[in-house]
Design brief:
By secondary structure, this protein is α+β, with helices and mostly antiparallel strands. It is built from three helices and eight strands. Pfam families: TRAP-delta (PF05404).
């Protein structure tokens, strides 16, 4: 009998602890990185780290999900209140400017997935939003140096032969 009561109390306690959500979330100390040189890569990497503070102190490690341009990805927990989000985009599709990373808890994630499945617009209010700025990626020069050197050699050869033919005639 005692064992059954103990398991019931443990299950209820675990449910209460894991079932808490973050209220009045505030993002602190957000830093971000994005690939700036795309000459030899096919994907642009985006990474952002941030701290999340909730008004209810009992919630330290909240499971979060991030939505970026309609794609949802899980958020990695890297400390008690520190989180990290990363995603990739193809070089041709990655735009320069600000990316809004919307953060959702498990309830918000379920609501977002429901709206995506039904084909509706996402009107679910996120816990918080992190802005990641991407200044663009260098994809190389307009002309490769080999092509420029070949064109220069062709021009010099043309000039030399045309000058020679004028001198000889």
């Amino acid at each position: 009998m005692f064992l059954k009561i103990f398991f019931v109390l443990c299950a209820i306690s675990l449910n209460v602890i894991l079932g808490q959500t973050c209220t009045n979330a505030q993002v602190k100390g957000a830093t971000s990185y994005s690939t700036s040189d795309a000459t030899i890569v096919s994907q642009i990497a985006f990474v952002t780290e941030f701290s999340l503070e909730c008004s209810n102190v009992a919630t330290e490690r909240v499971s979060l999900f991030a939505e970026v341009d309609g794609r949802i990805t899980p958020v990695a927990i890297i400390g008690d209140t520190k989180y990290q989000v990363s995603w990739n985009e193809e070089v041709k599709k990655a735009r320069s400017g600000d990316y809004n990373v919307k953060l959702y808890d498990e309830e918000g994630y379920a609501a977002v997935r429901k709206t995506q499945r039904s084909g509706e617009d996402n009107n679910v209010k996120p816990l918080a939003t992190v802005v990641v700025r991407h200044s663009g990626s260098y994809t190389g020069p307009w002309f490769n140096s080999e092509i420029l050197a070949a064109a220069l050699i062709a021009f010099v050869a043309y000039f030399a032969f045309s000058t020679r033919s004028k001198i000889l005639s």
